[in-house]
Amino acid sequence: MAACADVLEGLAAIGSLGRVAVEIRVGSVEEKQAHGRIGRGCAMRVKGRWAHGARRGSKGSACPPGGQKYRHQTSVTFHCEISRLRQPDIQAIFAPQGCCEDSMADPKPVLVVGAGPVGLVAAAELIRHGVPVTVLEEGTELSGEMRGSTFHAPTLDMLAEYGAAERMVEQGFVAPLMQYRRRDHGVIATFDFGVLADVTRHPFRLQCEQFKLTRILHDILKDKPGFSIRFGAKVAAVADEGSHVVATLADGTRIEGSHVIGCDGAHSAVRKSAGLSFEGFTWPERFLVLSTPFDFRSIIPDLADVSYYADPEEWFFLLRVPGGEPGGLWRAMFPTSAELSDEEILSPEFARARFARIKAGRDDYPTRHRTLYRVHQRVAETFRKGRILLAGDAAHINNPLGGMGLNGGVHDAVNLGAKLARVWHGDAEDVLDLYDRQRRGVTVEHVQRQTITNKQNLEAKEPEAQAAFRDRMAEAASDPAKAHAYLLQVSMINSLRRAAEID
Ligand SMILES: Cc1cc2nc3c(=O)[nH]c(=O)nc-3n(C[C@H](O)[C@H](O)[C@H](O)COP(=O)(O)OP(=O)(O)OC[C@H]3O[C@@H](n4cnc5c(N)ncnc54)[C@H](O)[C@@H]3O)c2cc1C
Protein backbone atom coordinates (compact mmCIF):
# COMPACT_ATOMS: atom_id res chain seq x y z
CA MET A 1 0.00 0.00 0.00
CA ALA A 2 2.84 2.32 0.82
CA ALA A 3 4.12 1.85 -2.70
CA CYS A 4 0.79 2.93 -4.07
CA ALA A 5 0.60 6.00 -1.90
CA ASP A 6 4.05 6.94 -3.12
CA VAL A 7 2.93 6.45 -6.70
CA LEU A 8 -0.02 8.71 -6.17
CA GLU A 9 2.10 11.40 -4.61
CA GLY A 10 4.61 11.12 -7.39
CA LEU A 11 1.96 11.45 -10.04
CA ALA A 12 0.34 14.35 -8.29
CA ALA A 13 3.68 16.11 -8.41
CA ILE A 14 4.09 15.40 -12.12
CA GLY A 15 0.73 16.98 -12.91
CA SER A 16 -1.31 16.25 -15.95
CA LEU A 17 1.43 15.32 -18.41
CA GLY A 18 4.60 13.44 -17.93
CA ARG A 19 6.47 10.20 -17.99
CA VAL A 20 6.95 8.07 -14.96
CA ALA A 21 8.60 4.80 -14.04
CA VAL A 22 7.22 3.21 -10.93
CA GLU A 23 8.43 0.23 -9.05
CA ILE A 24 5.76 -1.83 -7.40
CA ARG A 25 6.69 -4.65 -5.12
CA VAL A 26 4.53 -7.70 -5.56
CA GLY A 27 5.66 -9.89 -2.73
CA SER A 28 2.49 -9.91 -0.60
CA VAL A 29 -1.20 -10.23 -1.15
CA GLU A 30 -1.65 -6.55 -0.55
CA GLU A 31 0.98 -5.69 -3.09
CA LYS A 32 -0.42 -8.08 -5.65
CA GLN A 33 -3.49 -5.91 -5.57
CA ALA A 34 -1.25 -2.95 -6.28
CA HIS A 35 -0.07 -4.87 -9.32
CA GLY A 36 -3.71 -5.19 -10.39
CA ARG A 37 -4.27 -1.51 -10.03
CA ILE A 38 -1.46 -0.66 -12.34
CA GLY A 39 -2.75 -3.21 -14.80
CA ARG A 40 -6.09 -1.55 -14.85
CA GLY A 41 -4.66 1.90 -15.33
CA CYS A 42 -2.58 0.57 -18.16
CA ALA A 43 -5.62 -0.87 -19.87
CA MET A 44 -8.00 1.96 -19.34
CA ARG A 45 -6.20 5.19 -19.59
CA VAL A 46 -2.51 5.06 -20.05
CA LYS A 47 -0.15 4.17 -22.81
CA GLY A 48 2.36 2.12 -20.97
CA ARG A 49 4.49 -0.97 -20.95
CA TRP A 50 5.52 -3.42 -18.38
CA ALA A 51 9.11 -4.23 -17.72
CA HIS A 52 10.44 -7.75 -17.45
CA GLY A 53 9.32 -8.70 -20.92
CA ALA A 54 5.66 -7.92 -20.64
CA ARG A 55 4.05 -6.55 -23.76
CA ARG A 56 2.79 -3.02 -24.06
CA GLY A 57 -0.46 -2.57 -22.23
CA SER A 58 -3.26 -1.75 -24.56
CA LYS A 59 -6.96 -1.10 -24.48
CA GLY A 60 -8.71 -4.34 -23.69
CA SER A 61 -5.77 -6.09 -22.04
CA ALA A 62 -6.35 -5.08 -18.51
CA CYS A 63 -3.48 -6.95 -16.92
CA PRO A 64 -0.10 -7.10 -18.48
CA PRO A 65 0.06 -10.34 -20.43
CA GLY A 66 1.78 -12.83 -18.23
CA GLY A 67 0.78 -10.81 -15.22
CA GLN A 68 0.31 -14.00 -13.31
CA LYS A 69 4.02 -14.74 -13.26
CA TYR A 70 4.86 -11.43 -11.61
CA ARG A 71 3.04 -12.58 -8.53
CA HIS A 72 6.13 -14.47 -7.52
CA GLN A 73 8.66 -11.84 -8.36
CA THR A 74 9.75 -9.25 -5.92
CA SER A 75 9.19 -6.23 -8.02
CA VAL A 76 8.01 -5.01 -11.35
CA THR A 77 8.66 -1.68 -12.95
CA PHE A 78 5.86 0.07 -14.74
CA HIS A 79 6.69 2.72 -17.28
CA CYS A 80 3.79 4.81 -18.31
CA GLU A 81 3.25 7.91 -20.25
CA ILE A 82 0.57 10.02 -18.75
CA SER A 83 -1.39 11.69 -21.46
CA ARG A 84 -4.51 13.82 -21.30
CA LEU A 85 -5.08 12.87 -17.70
CA ARG A 86 -6.48 15.09 -15.07
CA GLN A 87 -5.84 14.61 -11.39
CA PRO A 88 -9.11 12.71 -10.72
CA ASP A 89 -8.23 10.24 -13.48
CA ILE A 90 -4.81 9.71 -12.04
CA GLN A 91 -6.31 8.97 -8.67
CA ALA A 92 -8.72 6.55 -10.27
CA ILE A 93 -5.92 4.58 -11.82
CA PHE A 94 -4.17 4.07 -8.54
CA ALA A 95 -7.18 3.91 -6.30
CA PRO A 96 -7.61 0.54 -4.64
CA GLN A 97 -9.36 -2.12 -6.65
CA GLY A 98 -9.70 -5.86 -6.60
CA CYS A 99 -7.22 -8.44 -7.74
CA CYS A 100 -6.61 -7.96 -11.40
CA GLU A 101 -7.20 -11.58 -12.36
CA ASP A 102 -10.77 -11.52 -11.09
CA SER A 103 -11.97 -8.02 -11.51
CA MET A 104 -10.23 -7.26 -14.76
CA ALA A 105 -11.32 -10.36 -16.57
CA ASP A 106 -14.83 -8.98 -16.79
CA PRO A 107 -15.11 -5.55 -15.21
CA LYS A 108 -18.79 -4.84 -14.77
CA PRO A 109 -20.13 -1.32 -14.85
CA VAL A 110 -22.20 0.18 -12.10
CA LEU A 111 -25.82 0.27 -13.25
CA VAL A 112 -27.63 3.53 -12.59
CA VAL A 113 -31.38 3.27 -13.02
CA GLY A 114 -32.87 6.62 -14.02
CA ALA A 115 -31.37 9.54 -15.95
CA GLY A 116 -32.89 12.19 -13.72
CA PRO A 117 -30.65 14.73 -12.00
CA VAL A 118 -29.64 12.31 -9.26
CA GLY A 119 -28.82 9.44 -11.61
CA LEU A 120 -26.65 11.60 -13.82
CA VAL A 121 -24.81 13.15 -10.87
CA ALA A 122 -24.12 9.63 -9.55
CA ALA A 123 -22.83 8.71 -13.01
CA ALA A 124 -20.64 11.82 -13.16
CA GLU A 125 -19.11 11.08 -9.76
CA LEU A 126 -18.37 7.46 -10.69
CA ILE A 127 -16.90 8.35 -14.07
CA ARG A 128 -14.74 10.95 -12.36
CA HIS A 129 -13.28 8.13 -10.29
CA GLY A 130 -12.66 5.89 -13.28
CA VAL A 131 -15.67 3.59 -12.80
CA PRO A 132 -17.65 2.55 -15.90
CA VAL A 133 -21.35 3.31 -15.68
CA THR A 134 -24.38 2.21 -17.64
CA VAL A 135 -27.44 4.40 -17.14
CA LEU A 136 -30.80 2.74 -17.83
CA GLU A 137 -33.55 5.26 -18.53
CA GLU A 138 -37.17 4.38 -19.14
CA GLY A 139 -37.88 7.48 -21.23
CA THR A 140 -36.84 7.73 -24.85
CA GLU A 141 -35.05 10.97 -24.02
CA LEU A 142 -34.20 13.08 -20.98
CA SER A 143 -37.25 14.43 -19.17
CA GLY A 144 -38.25 18.00 -20.03
CA GLU A 145 -40.36 18.48 -16.88
CA MET A 146 -39.66 21.70 -14.99
CA ARG A 147 -40.14 20.27 -11.46
CA GLY A 148 -37.32 21.26 -9.10
CA SER A 149 -35.81 24.65 -9.78
CA THR A 150 -33.83 25.51 -6.68
CA PHE A 151 -30.13 24.79 -6.30
CA HIS A 152 -28.48 25.51 -3.00
CA ALA A 153 -24.91 26.72 -2.54
CA PRO A 154 -23.22 23.43 -1.58
CA THR A 155 -24.98 21.63 -4.42
CA LEU A 156 -23.50 24.12 -6.85
CA ASP A 157 -20.09 23.62 -5.24
CA MET A 158 -20.46 19.89 -5.95
CA LEU A 159 -21.68 20.39 -9.51
CA ALA A 160 -18.70 22.65 -10.17
CA GLU A 161 -16.45 19.58 -9.86
CA TYR A 162 -17.98 18.21 -13.08
CA GLY A 163 -17.93 21.56 -14.86
CA ALA A 164 -21.71 21.80 -14.59
CA ALA A 165 -22.22 24.66 -12.11
CA GLU A 166 -20.93 27.41 -14.36
CA ARG A 167 -23.22 26.32 -17.16
CA MET A 168 -26.16 26.14 -14.76
CA VAL A 169 -25.43 29.67 -13.56
CA GLU A 170 -25.35 30.87 -17.18
CA GLN A 171 -28.76 29.30 -17.80
CA GLY A 172 -30.42 30.18 -14.49
CA PHE A 173 -31.21 33.15 -12.29
CA VAL A 174 -28.90 33.94 -9.41
CA ALA A 175 -31.14 34.73 -6.43
CA PRO A 176 -29.07 36.54 -3.79
CA LEU A 177 -32.07 37.16 -1.50
CA MET A 178 -34.81 35.13 0.15
CA GLN A 179 -37.83 36.74 1.79
CA TYR A 180 -40.58 35.85 4.20
CA ARG A 181 -43.68 37.98 3.82
CA ARG A 182 -47.09 38.36 5.33
CA ARG A 183 -50.23 37.86 3.33
CA ASP A 184 -50.60 41.66 3.06
CA HIS A 185 -47.12 41.75 1.41
CA GLY A 186 -45.45 43.22 4.47
CA VAL A 187 -41.87 41.94 4.67
CA ILE A 188 -41.16 39.79 7.73
CA ALA A 189 -37.49 39.18 6.89
CA THR A 190 -35.07 39.42 3.99
CA PHE A 191 -32.00 37.16 4.07
CA ASP A 192 -28.93 37.80 1.96
CA PHE A 193 -27.07 34.61 0.96
CA GLY A 194 -23.96 36.75 0.48
CA VAL A 195 -23.12 36.19 4.16
CA LEU A 196 -22.22 32.60 3.20
CA ALA A 197 -19.30 33.74 1.04
CA ASP A 198 -16.91 32.45 3.71
CA VAL A 199 -18.11 28.85 3.29
CA THR A 200 -19.14 28.47 -0.36
CA ARG A 201 -18.06 29.51 -3.83
CA HIS A 202 -21.73 30.07 -4.67
CA PRO A 203 -23.23 32.32 -1.98
CA PHE A 204 -26.72 32.46 -3.49
CA ARG A 205 -29.63 30.27 -4.50
CA LEU A 206 -29.77 29.40 -8.15
CA GLN A 207 -33.18 29.26 -9.76
CA CYS A 208 -32.81 26.96 -12.74
CA GLU A 209 -35.03 24.15 -14.01
CA GLN A 210 -33.75 20.69 -13.20
CA PHE A 211 -34.04 19.53 -16.82
CA LYS A 212 -31.22 21.93 -17.64
CA LEU A 213 -28.97 20.11 -15.21
CA THR A 214 -29.69 16.72 -16.78
CA ARG A 215 -28.94 18.09 -20.24
CA ILE A 216 -25.71 19.71 -19.10
CA LEU A 217 -24.55 16.55 -17.34
CA HIS A 218 -25.47 14.36 -20.28
CA ASP A 219 -23.52 16.65 -22.55
CA ILE A 220 -20.49 16.46 -20.25
CA LEU A 221 -20.70 12.68 -19.86
CA LYS A 222 -21.72 11.40 -23.26
CA ASP A 223 -18.22 11.07 -24.72
CA LYS A 224 -16.42 10.08 -21.54
CA PRO A 225 -14.75 6.67 -21.64
CA GLY A 226 -16.78 4.21 -19.59
CA PHE A 227 -20.09 6.09 -19.81
CA SER A 228 -23.06 4.65 -21.62
CA ILE A 229 -26.77 5.38 -21.46
CA ARG A 230 -29.68 3.34 -22.77
CA PHE A 231 -32.95 5.14 -23.37
CA GLY A 232 -36.22 3.23 -23.58
CA ALA A 233 -34.80 0.85 -20.97
CA LYS A 234 -37.45 0.41 -18.29
CA VAL A 235 -36.10 -1.61 -15.39
CA ALA A 236 -38.68 -4.06 -14.06
CA ALA A 237 -36.57 -5.78 -11.40
CA VAL A 238 -33.09 -5.99 -9.96
CA ALA A 239 -31.42 -8.92 -8.24
CA ASP A 240 -28.30 -9.08 -6.10
CA GLU A 241 -26.44 -12.22 -7.17
CA GLY A 242 -23.75 -11.91 -4.51
CA SER A 243 -20.79 -11.13 -6.77
CA HIS A 244 -22.76 -8.84 -9.12
CA VAL A 245 -26.26 -7.56 -9.86
CA VAL A 246 -28.70 -8.21 -12.68
CA ALA A 247 -31.26 -5.67 -13.87
CA THR A 248 -34.12 -7.10 -15.87
CA LEU A 249 -35.81 -4.73 -18.28
CA ALA A 250 -39.52 -4.76 -18.99
CA ASP A 251 -38.77 -6.49 -22.34
CA GLY A 252 -36.91 -9.28 -20.54
CA THR A 253 -33.37 -8.13 -21.39
CA ARG A 254 -30.93 -8.89 -18.56
CA ILE A 255 -28.06 -6.51 -17.87
CA GLU A 256 -25.26 -7.27 -15.44
CA GLY A 257 -23.47 -4.77 -13.29
CA SER A 258 -21.23 -4.70 -10.24
CA HIS A 259 -23.83 -2.74 -8.24
CA VAL A 260 -27.08 -0.99 -9.04
CA ILE A 261 -28.13 2.46 -7.87
CA GLY A 262 -31.86 3.10 -7.97
CA CYS A 263 -32.27 6.75 -8.99
CA ASP A 264 -35.63 5.99 -10.53
CA GLY A 265 -37.74 8.45 -8.62
CA ALA A 266 -40.47 8.22 -6.02
CA HIS A 267 -42.11 5.12 -7.52
CA SER A 268 -38.74 3.38 -7.74
CA ALA A 269 -38.89 -0.08 -9.28
CA VAL A 270 -35.46 -0.74 -7.76
CA ARG A 271 -36.70 0.01 -4.24
CA LYS A 272 -39.79 -2.14 -4.71
CA SER A 273 -37.81 -4.96 -6.29
CA ALA A 274 -35.46 -4.95 -3.29
CA GLY A 275 -38.51 -5.22 -1.01
CA LEU A 276 -37.70 -1.99 0.85
CA SER A 277 -40.52 -0.12 2.53
CA PHE A 278 -41.01 3.62 2.02
CA GLU A 279 -42.15 4.77 5.40
CA GLY A 280 -43.81 8.09 6.18
CA PHE A 281 -47.01 9.88 5.34
CA THR A 282 -48.85 11.81 2.65
CA TRP A 283 -50.16 15.35 3.27
CA PRO A 284 -53.94 15.55 2.74
CA GLU A 285 -53.72 18.68 0.60
CA ARG A 286 -52.25 18.60 -2.92
CA PHE A 287 -49.99 21.39 -4.14
CA LEU A 288 -50.86 23.43 -7.20
CA VAL A 289 -48.04 25.08 -9.13
CA LEU A 290 -49.00 27.85 -11.57
CA SER A 291 -46.56 29.73 -13.70
CA THR A 292 -46.91 33.04 -15.48
CA PRO A 293 -44.62 35.43 -17.38
CA PHE A 294 -46.30 38.30 -15.54
CA ASP A 295 -43.63 40.05 -13.46
CA PHE A 296 -44.92 40.31 -9.91
CA ARG A 297 -42.12 42.76 -9.11
CA SER A 298 -44.11 45.35 -11.04
CA ILE A 299 -46.90 45.24 -8.43
CA ILE A 300 -45.09 44.02 -5.29
CA PRO A 301 -42.31 46.41 -4.27
CA ASP A 302 -38.87 44.88 -3.54
CA LEU A 303 -40.08 41.36 -4.19
CA ALA A 304 -37.18 38.89 -3.96
CA ASP A 305 -36.89 36.10 -6.52
CA VAL A 306 -37.55 33.61 -3.70
CA SER A 307 -40.44 34.73 -1.49
CA TYR A 308 -42.47 32.72 0.99
CA TYR A 309 -45.82 34.02 2.24
CA ALA A 310 -46.94 32.96 5.71
CA ASP A 311 -50.67 32.81 6.34
CA PRO A 312 -52.96 30.50 8.34
CA GLU A 313 -55.42 30.15 5.42
CA GLU A 314 -53.56 31.02 2.26
CA TRP A 315 -49.83 30.48 2.52
CA PHE A 316 -48.02 30.27 -0.80
CA PHE A 317 -44.66 30.95 -2.37
CA LEU A 318 -43.38 32.83 -5.40
CA LEU A 319 -40.20 31.87 -7.25
CA ARG A 320 -38.77 33.34 -10.41
CA VAL A 321 -37.22 30.89 -12.91
CA PRO A 322 -35.95 31.43 -16.47
CA GLY A 323 -38.76 29.37 -18.06
CA GLY A 324 -37.63 30.20 -21.59
CA GLU A 325 -39.29 33.64 -21.39
CA PRO A 326 -37.38 36.91 -21.81
CA GLY A 327 -38.10 38.15 -18.28
CA GLY A 328 -38.48 34.69 -16.79
CA LEU A 329 -41.51 32.94 -15.36
CA TRP A 330 -42.92 33.32 -11.89
CA ARG A 331 -43.94 30.05 -10.28
CA ALA A 332 -46.58 30.32 -7.58
CA MET A 333 -47.34 27.34 -5.38
CA PHE A 334 -50.53 26.97 -3.33
CA PRO A 335 -51.93 24.20 -1.14
CA THR A 336 -55.37 23.01 -2.26
CA SER A 337 -58.24 21.43 -0.39
CA ALA A 338 -58.48 17.64 -0.25
CA GLU A 339 -62.20 17.93 -1.03
CA LEU A 340 -61.75 19.34 -4.53
CA SER A 341 -61.35 17.15 -7.60
CA ASP A 342 -58.28 17.34 -9.84
CA GLU A 343 -60.47 18.72 -12.66
CA GLU A 344 -61.72 21.58 -10.49
CA ILE A 345 -58.25 22.49 -9.31
CA LEU A 346 -56.72 22.35 -12.77
CA SER A 347 -59.44 24.48 -14.38
CA PRO A 348 -58.57 27.98 -15.70
CA GLU A 349 -61.17 29.45 -13.32
CA PHE A 350 -59.44 27.94 -10.31
CA ALA A 351 -56.08 29.29 -11.50
CA ARG A 352 -57.54 32.76 -11.86
CA ALA A 353 -59.10 32.58 -8.39
CA ARG A 354 -55.77 31.52 -6.89
CA PHE A 355 -53.83 34.21 -8.69
CA ALA A 356 -56.38 36.77 -7.50
CA ARG A 357 -55.34 36.03 -3.94
CA ILE A 358 -51.78 37.16 -4.55
CA LYS A 359 -52.75 40.75 -5.15
CA ALA A 360 -56.31 41.97 -4.76
CA GLY A 361 -57.94 43.14 -7.97
CA ARG A 362 -55.72 41.16 -10.38
CA ASP A 363 -56.51 37.73 -11.82
CA ASP A 364 -55.70 38.15 -15.49
CA TYR A 365 -52.20 36.70 -15.54
CA PRO A 366 -51.34 34.58 -18.58
CA THR A 367 -50.78 31.03 -17.33
CA ARG A 368 -48.04 28.84 -18.82
CA HIS A 369 -48.22 25.76 -16.59
CA ARG A 370 -50.73 24.25 -14.18
CA THR A 371 -49.35 21.29 -12.25
CA LEU A 372 -51.02 19.52 -9.36
CA TYR A 373 -49.13 17.08 -7.24
CA ARG A 374 -49.45 15.04 -4.11
CA VAL A 375 -46.85 15.67 -1.45
CA HIS A 376 -45.33 13.06 0.83
CA GLN A 377 -42.76 12.77 3.58
CA ARG A 378 -41.23 9.33 3.14
CA VAL A 379 -37.85 7.68 3.65
CA ALA A 380 -36.82 4.19 2.52
CA GLU A 381 -36.07 1.80 5.38
CA THR A 382 -32.46 1.62 4.21
CA PHE A 383 -30.49 3.17 1.35
CA ARG A 384 -28.40 0.00 0.92
CA LYS A 385 -29.30 -3.65 0.60
CA GLY A 386 -26.21 -5.57 -0.44
CA ARG A 387 -25.25 -4.39 -3.93
CA ILE A 388 -28.51 -2.52 -4.37
CA LEU A 389 -28.42 1.17 -3.44
CA LEU A 390 -30.93 3.97 -3.48
CA ALA A 391 -30.49 7.71 -3.98
CA GLY A 392 -32.66 10.76 -4.58
CA ASP A 393 -36.44 10.47 -4.72
CA ALA A 394 -36.16 6.69 -4.82
CA ALA A 395 -34.77 6.94 -1.27
CA HIS A 396 -36.68 9.91 0.17
CA ILE A 397 -39.34 12.45 -0.72
CA ASN A 398 -40.53 15.57 1.05
CA ASN A 399 -42.59 18.68 0.52
CA PRO A 400 -40.98 21.32 -1.71
CA LEU A 401 -40.79 24.09 0.92
CA GLY A 402 -37.12 24.93 1.07
CA GLY A 403 -36.18 23.15 -2.17
CA MET A 404 -34.48 20.27 -0.40
CA GLY A 405 -35.62 17.18 -2.32
CA LEU A 406 -33.54 17.57 -5.44
CA ASN A 407 -30.59 19.05 -3.55
CA GLY A 408 -30.61 16.23 -1.00
CA GLY A 409 -30.67 13.75 -3.88
CA VAL A 410 -27.60 15.34 -5.45
CA HIS A 411 -25.86 15.16 -2.07
CA ASP A 412 -26.71 11.44 -1.89
CA ALA A 413 -25.34 10.85 -5.38
CA VAL A 414 -22.02 12.56 -4.67
CA ASN A 415 -21.57 10.81 -1.32
CA LEU A 416 -22.49 7.41 -2.77
CA GLY A 417 -20.57 7.81 -6.03
CA ALA A 418 -17.29 8.45 -4.20
CA LYS A 419 -17.78 5.52 -1.82
CA LEU A 420 -18.96 3.11 -4.48
CA ALA A 421 -15.92 4.00 -6.58
CA ARG A 422 -13.72 2.90 -3.70
CA VAL A 423 -15.60 -0.38 -3.48
CA TRP A 424 -15.47 -0.93 -7.22
CA HIS A 425 -11.71 -0.41 -7.10
CA GLY A 426 -11.35 -2.98 -4.35
CA ASP A 427 -12.21 -1.52 -0.94
CA ALA A 428 -14.46 -3.46 1.42
CA GLU A 429 -18.20 -3.11 0.81
CA ASP A 430 -18.77 -1.88 4.40
CA VAL A 431 -18.20 1.70 3.32
CA LEU A 432 -21.60 1.49 1.62
CA ASP A 433 -23.19 1.11 5.05
CA LEU A 434 -21.58 4.41 5.93
CA TYR A 435 -23.37 5.93 2.95
CA ASP A 436 -26.64 4.69 4.42
CA ARG A 437 -25.83 5.95 7.89
CA GLN A 438 -24.71 9.36 6.68
CA ARG A 439 -27.29 10.11 4.03
CA ARG A 440 -30.29 8.36 5.55
CA GLY A 441 -29.28 9.86 8.89
CA VAL A 442 -29.36 13.46 7.68
CA THR A 443 -32.41 12.85 5.51
CA VAL A 444 -34.36 12.00 8.65
CA GLU A 445 -32.66 14.44 11.02
CA HIS A 446 -32.44 17.45 8.70
CA VAL A 447 -34.32 17.25 5.41
CA GLN A 448 -37.53 15.67 6.69
CA ARG A 449 -37.55 17.74 9.85
CA GLN A 450 -36.70 21.03 8.14
CA THR A 451 -39.25 20.68 5.34
CA ILE A 452 -42.02 19.78 7.78
CA THR A 453 -41.03 22.75 9.96
CA ASN A 454 -41.01 25.05 6.92
CA LYS A 455 -44.58 24.06 6.09
CA GLN A 456 -45.74 24.38 9.69
CA ASN A 457 -44.20 27.85 9.97
CA LEU A 458 -45.98 29.15 6.90
CA GLU A 459 -49.37 27.64 7.74
CA ALA A 460 -49.29 28.22 11.54
CA LYS A 461 -52.85 28.81 12.74
CA GLU A 462 -52.26 30.01 16.30
CA PRO A 463 -51.52 33.75 16.55
CA GLU A 464 -48.77 33.01 19.11
CA ALA A 465 -47.06 30.57 16.73
CA GLN A 466 -47.34 33.04 13.84
CA ALA A 467 -45.88 35.84 15.95
CA ALA A 468 -43.08 33.61 17.24
CA PHE A 469 -42.09 32.69 13.66
CA ARG A 470 -42.18 36.31 12.51
CA ASP A 471 -40.10 37.44 15.50
CA ARG A 472 -37.55 34.67 15.02
CA MET A 473 -37.08 35.43 11.34
CA ALA A 474 -36.96 39.20 11.79
CA GLU A 475 -34.36 38.86 14.53
CA ALA A 476 -32.25 36.42 12.51
CA ALA A 477 -32.31 38.62 9.42
CA SER A 478 -31.22 41.69 11.34
CA ASP A 479 -28.21 40.07 13.02
CA PRO A 480 -25.38 38.93 10.67
CA ALA A 481 -24.25 36.09 12.95
CA LYS A 482 -27.79 34.77 13.30
CA ALA A 483 -28.45 35.21 9.59
CA HIS A 484 -25.29 33.23 8.87
CA ALA A 485 -26.39 30.44 11.19
CA TYR A 486 -29.88 30.36 9.71
CA LEU A 487 -28.66 30.28 6.12
CA LEU A 488 -26.22 27.45 6.91
CA GLN A 489 -29.31 25.49 7.87
CA VAL A 490 -31.60 26.37 4.96
CA SER A 491 -28.80 26.02 2.39
CA MET A 492 -28.23 22.46 3.64
CA ILE A 493 -24.62 23.15 4.60
CA ASN A 494 -25.38 22.02 8.14
CA SER A 495 -26.83 18.75 6.91
CA LEU A 496 -23.66 18.04 4.93
CA ARG A 497 -21.48 18.91 7.91
CA ARG A 498 -23.54 16.61 10.07
CA ALA A 499 -23.30 13.79 7.50
CA ALA A 500 -19.52 14.15 7.49
CA GLU A 501 -19.46 13.69 11.29
CA ILE A 502 -21.32 10.37 11.15
CA ASP A 503 -19.05 7.33 11.12
C1 LIG B 1 -43.76 20.00 -9.05
C2 LIG B 1 -42.48 19.69 -8.36
C3 LIG B 1 -41.69 20.72 -7.91
C4 LIG B 1 -40.51 20.46 -7.26
N1 LIG B 1 -39.73 21.49 -6.84
C5 LIG B 1 -38.54 21.24 -6.25
C6 LIG B 1 -37.65 22.30 -5.87
O1 LIG B 1 -37.93 23.49 -6.08
N2 LIG B 1 -36.48 21.97 -5.29
C7 LIG B 1 -36.13 20.67 -5.05
O2 LIG B 1 -35.05 20.43 -4.50
N3 LIG B 1 -36.93 19.66 -5.42
C8 LIG B 1 -38.13 19.91 -6.03
N4 LIG B 1 -38.93 18.88 -6.43
C9 LIG B 1 -38.46 17.53 -6.24
C10 LIG B 1 -37.53 17.16 -7.36
O3 LIG B 1 -38.15 17.32 -8.62
C11 LIG B 1 -37.08 15.74 -7.16
O4 LIG B 1 -36.53 15.64 -5.87
C12 LIG B 1 -36.05 15.34 -8.20
O5 LIG B 1 -36.62 15.22 -9.48
C13 LIG B 1 -35.45 13.99 -7.83
O6 LIG B 1 -34.56 13.59 -8.82
P1 LIG B 1 -34.33 12.07 -9.09
O7 LIG B 1 -33.28 12.02 -10.14
O8 LIG B 1 -34.13 11.34 -7.81
O9 LIG B 1 -35.71 11.51 -9.65
P2 LIG B 1 -36.54 11.92 -10.98
O10 LIG B 1 -36.26 13.33 -11.35
O11 LIG B 1 -37.90 11.50 -10.68
O12 LIG B 1 -35.87 11.02 -12.08
C14 LIG B 1 -36.12 9.64 -12.14
C15 LIG B 1 -35.73 9.14 -13.53
O13 LIG B 1 -35.86 7.73 -13.52
C16 LIG B 1 -36.57 7.32 -14.66
N5 LIG B 1 -37.24 6.06 -14.30
C17 LIG B 1 -38.30 5.90 -13.47
N6 LIG B 1 -38.60 4.60 -13.35
C18 LIG B 1 -37.71 3.93 -14.12
C19 LIG B 1 -37.51 2.56 -14.41
N7 LIG B 1 -38.28 1.60 -13.86
N8 LIG B 1 -36.51 2.20 -15.25
C20 LIG B 1 -35.71 3.15 -15.81
N9 LIG B 1 -35.86 4.47 -15.58
C21 LIG B 1 -36.85 4.84 -14.73
C22 LIG B 1 -37.51 8.46 -14.96
O14 LIG B 1 -37.94 8.44 -16.32
C23 LIG B 1 -36.65 9.67 -14.62
O15 LIG B 1 -35.87 10.07 -15.72
C24 LIG B 1 -40.11 19.11 -7.05
C25 LIG B 1 -40.91 18.06 -7.51
C26 LIG B 1 -42.09 18.33 -8.15
C27 LIG B 1 -42.94 17.19 -8.63
Automatic annotation (TrEMBL):
Gene3D superfamilies: 3.30.70.2450, FAD/NAD(P)-binding domain. SUPFAM superfamilies: FAD/NAD(P)-binding domain. Residues 109-449 form the FAD-binding domain. Pfam families: FAD_binding_3. Keywords: Oxidoreductase. GO terms for molecular function: 3-(3-hydroxyphenyl)propionate hydroxylase activity; FAD binding. One of its GO terms (biological process) is 3-(3-hydroxy)phenylpropionate catabolic process. InterPro entries: FAD-bd, FAD/NAD-bd_sf, PheA/TfdB_FAD_monoxygenase. This is FAD-binding protein. It comes from Rhodovarius crocodyli.
